[in-house]
Each structure stands twice: as structure tokens, then as C-alpha cells.
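ok here's Translocation and assembly module TamA, seq below lol
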Amino acid sequence: MSTTILAAETHKAAAFEIFGIRLWGSAEEEDADVVDPLDYAVTFEVVGDDDDLTKALENASTLKGEEERPVSGSLGLLAKARNDRERLIAALFSKARYDGVVDITIAGKRLDDLQPDAVFDGPQPIPVTVTIQPGSMFTLGDVVLKGDAANIRGANFGLIAGGNANSDAILKAEAGIVRALKEEGRPLAKVVGRTIVADHATTTLDVTLDVAAGPIAGYGETTVEGTETVDRDFTVYMTGLERGRQYSPKEIDDARNRLLALEVFSSVSINEALALDPAGEIPIDVRVSERKMRYFGAGATFSNTEGAGIEGYWGHRNLFGRAEKLRIGGSISRIGDTTELGDLNYNAGIMFEKPGVIGPASKFFANLKAVSEHPDAYDRFSIGGNVGLSYELTKEQTVSGSVAVDYSDIEDALNPDGKRYLLVSLPLQYVYDNRDDKLNPTRGFRALAYAEPTYDALNGNMFVKLKGEGSAYYGLGADNRFVLAGRVAMGSILGASVEDVPADRRFYAGGGGSVRGYAYQGIGPHTDGKPTGGLSYAETSIEMRYAYNDKIGIVPFIDAGTVSTRQFPDFSTVKVGAGIGVRYLTPFGPLRVDVAVPLNPGPGDPSYGIYAGVGQAF
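and the structure came out like this:
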């Protein structure tokens, strides 16, 4: 298992927190710019016993959320209170409460009765009281679509009498209607009129929308602002928005995602012009903000069954000005698992990528790697590299192919005197991925198909390695507080005996990225107490991911796997592990700690396993 859990990039020093603990900087530094600081204390009351509504209103209130921070004098407190009332009314509208009342008092006086230059010079903190009467929940009444939306069914977008009347649902419906017209190739489609009438007697909300579709148009000139070191013409090229081709909002979204995927921009916005050009085409405006191009980092891993590891790397995101990536890195692992320096695992490599070689959806890649590793199954020294190309068929589908050459010297239980290999292979891969979040998915599916025909030039053997994986995610409840996640994987090597397949190319199971509770490579056939790997394997995992709150998650799980020397898995030797994990959610993915035990251990299997890393297990 190898997972980076610490990374650093060159940047200006600033306050920094992790797990809620401030590592450097101070709160006083953040408040240093406050002029004439004034402290206040909030009493927050929502009439009724709706806990969810109370929580939503408290989250919307900056008076409540920033109570610990002083404001800039009496004017600052007045401005904050007036802004808070608007925010709270908007929050009530978002819950379909259109007759709610928000009352704010400062030092015992109602906000509307205070003069614009009121001064609060009493003892601090100044008392502030927020009282909210939520009122009734409204439903939709009459829904009328006018103009170019007259033939559109509002029910298709959630606008139906008796339906959800909250402001978010209405705005979402508006956006959906405009999007539907834009998907016809109409970039200027917009809502030109909106009439909302709340009937307090019937607690219904009548909605009238007037929509103008505008003409069908193609793309005009694409202009870019914000590039400094990245080539501007290359940025235009990578949008893939060919002049004259019919406008599509989906292509605009794909272009934005493609530019962000280059990893040279911290932000990307793509907007259509407000009018067509003289040729009847829609100009496109791209605005970007560049990231720091050079970076470095360090990482660490830990498992009680595999030892600890450290790694370091340096990289450049924009080597020649067109988002070419170069990364140089190295790692040492098995620290603590062995006392001999020669038995540690060493890894060093260099990677290069160049996007857009045969169209915006393509990427050329090349890497060179040297490895000296000593897992329980074998001892290997290897030098190898590959060059290849990946291509995005769609937003969800990617294919890749490469040519790889690898020289290795391997000693294992089936070849105790060591054996040398010179492998030439053609790795081919297809991936389908429609998950909503790559780091912490709550819905969607990911499937991978992999084939690697290989020729051993030193020994005259040929074999084909096949592998398939699939994982699915299903969120339960409106807020996806529970997520059921499952994974299956199978593989087979055809064309050679297990002795003729290099030990590092065989299949293994067990460990943090496989069947938790067992040692790394610990599942499967053994010879003289050492794992030999096999010609086939199968694995499956099921997790129930429970979000205790916005930061902490609890994950019970069950893993199972088998490895066989036959070309197809032998399910009579399945090993099962189970356990529970904790997740701490961060902007760069969940921090993961799992504890697992083997349910049907054999001789030599550990009694438990502890695994730490970044990201979900799958």
C-alpha cells in the first residue's frame, strides 16, 4: 500500500490549520485589519421545533457564524445585521417560507428603529437578538410559461401545481428550461420576465416565466484572458470550440473541464458573449488564473503488516509553455519491516506528459523507472519505461495504449536461483467513469478493462494479462448520509505457465488496497512459506460509508479474495476479511484509517491489520 499523506508546494506563508488545529499563524493576525473592534453576543431563536430549519437558518447567519470575531465599530455591526436579515429571508425563501418574519435587535432596540449613525458604547459584548417566525410552508399554485417556453411542460422541470415552491427549486427549474433551449444550439436563451405572487390566504406561490430562446448560432472567435506562462493559442486550441460549429452548452462544460484537467489553471470560466457577432456567431470569452507551475512534496505511508514508507518528488506543470508535465520522484518503503538496508524497497522514476498531441482530447505520456523491491513474494531489480497515448472518447470514457520495455532480474520461490527477463508489452486500457466525485463518490459507476500482450525476448515466452474491475456507488437519503459502495475485480494470465511468468506480473491479493486484514500479497498459493502469486485472481469489497457529520465518516466493510495458479479463479479458497474504518474529510480527499481482521485466517496470517492513507479504499 502506498499513499501520500503529506504534500507541500512553494507558496507564501499564511495561517494553516489541519484537523481544526492551527499549525502556524493566529486568529489575532486575521483580525488585525479590523478598525475599532467591537465584540457582540448573539441570542438566536427560531419559533417552532423544526431542528432542520433552525440549523439551516443558523448556517445562513453570519452574525451567528462569526460571533467570535469582532466587527469594525458600530457601523460594522449595523451593516452586518442588515445583511444578515437579507440572508435569513433568502434562507426562509429557500425553504418555501414566504410569510416568515425576521426581527433583529441590537442593545435592545429593533434594527428598523436604529439611526444609520447609531453608536453602541455600552459594555461589550453588545447584545444582539435574532428572532425568526418561519411562517407557513408554501406550495406551487398556478404555473405559466410564456414566450419561447410556451410549449415546454413545466412539470418536466418540477414546476407543477402543489409541488415544491422553494426558491432554489424555482431557480433550478429556470436554469433547466434555459439549458434545454441552449441545447438546441441557442446561446442567447434567457428568462426575460419573472412574476412571483405569494397568496398568503392559500399558502400557494404562483409563478409566471417569460423566456426568449434567441437564434441558433455557431461558435465565433474564442478569446483568452489571464494566461501568463501558458501559451494563449494553445489554450484556445484545448477548448476544442471550433469556429462555425453549432453551439452546445455541453461542449462548453467539457471545454472548461478539459482546461482544468491540464492542472495549470486554478480557475477557469467560459462565457458566451451577450450578442452575436456580425457573422451571426457567438463569441466565447475564456478567463483563467494560472497556478504555480513548480511544486515539490513529500509523503509517508504506514501499515502494521507492510511497514512504513517515505517518498519525495519534484514537478513542473508547464515545462515548455503548453501544459507539459515533468515529475521526478523516488521512494523508500518497508521501513521497520526489515532491519537490512538492502532489503528495503527503492523506487525512482521520471514521468513526462504532453496534452493535445492529436486533438484536445488526447495526451502523450512517457516514463522511465528503476525499482529494487523485496516483498515477501520475490526480490526484484528492474529498469523499464513506456511511451503511449490516451484519448478521451467522451467525458466518461477514456482509452489508452502504450509500448513498454522492461528488463528485470527476479528471484522467487519458483525460480530460487534467479531469472532474467526482457519484456516487450503493449498495455491497452479502457475506462468508463461517471462518478459524481472521483475522491469521495456518492453515486455512479467505474469500470476498467485491461489487456497486456507480452513477449519475453530473453526466454522466448509469450503471454497475455487480462484484468477487469468495476465499482458502484449508491447514496441513500436526500443528503447521501449513507453511501453503499461495492467493488469487484477479476484477472487471468493466458499463454504461459506460472513459472514462466515473471513474479511481479503474476496476480496477488491481500493488504490495504486489496483484502484488508491479511498481509500484502499474503493470499494465494505459497511455496516454502513464500507467496508465489498466480495466473488468476478475484476480489470483491462492500462498504457502508456513513457520514457522522461534515468532517467525520465511519465505514464498516467486508473484503474477499482468492488467487489461483490456474488460468481461472478457484473460488474454493476464498479468504475473507472484515473491519471498520474512520474517514476525515479534507479538500484533497478523505484521510483513511482502517482496522481489519481475517475471518478465516491460515497459518502465518496476521491477527489484524491497520492501514492508513488518503482517499477512499476504492
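fwiw Residues 547 and 553 are 4 Å apart (CA to CA). kinda neat tbh
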